[in-house]
Amino acid sequence: MDQVKIGRFIQSSRKQTNMTQKELADKLGVSDKLISKWETGNGMPDISLLNELCSVLNISVNELLSGEILPPEKYSEKAEENIMELLKNNTNNKKAYIVQLIAGIVFFIAAVLLMAVTTYGADPRLVSNYIDTPSLVIVVAFIFACILIAGAKTVKSVFSTIRKVALPVGAMTMIFQSVGLFLTSTAETVFFGLAVAVIPMLYSLGIYVIALLVDIKLNKEN
Question: On the chain, which terminus has fewer CB atoms closer than 10 Å, C or N?
Fold first, then answer.
């Protein structure tokens, strides 16, 4: 589907109904910036908004997806083309998500293995084992796995997912490492080991704050 053509059609249809972008946005319950994105071809209306959008603009869904007013003789032909295009996109999206899901599971397992190795296979007195690379890599790997498994594709959905999973990932990693370091530490190093186990939570908190700020900014734009 030609997003630019569809965007121009939305714009012309809106103008024919003497509505501003703000008025159309208010009727649909979205922001005028989102309407602007549609009209410039930088995005497509969500499928849940198609019927309402078409009703407001006095056009059919078939015409919207075609990006033009359709004469009767072309209506059935275009409807079939649009249905086939939607089915094709749906199939491609499902295949892409399966690959994404598998990749997410692989990352999740890799993160678990790395966490087990660094916790149970290292001397808790070696602070660099936890502060420098492994703890940060573990947290990032878990978060990335969650993004893939959630099927996040847009920038907004990626940062929204990060915001939702960052703290739980940090807490889970901290608890796992706390137990492991407690079991592997000597009487002299047990408190040191438990203190080191808090580091993944601090990394997660930092990532959460960054994702939250970005998510807020993106919500304002949309």
Answer: C
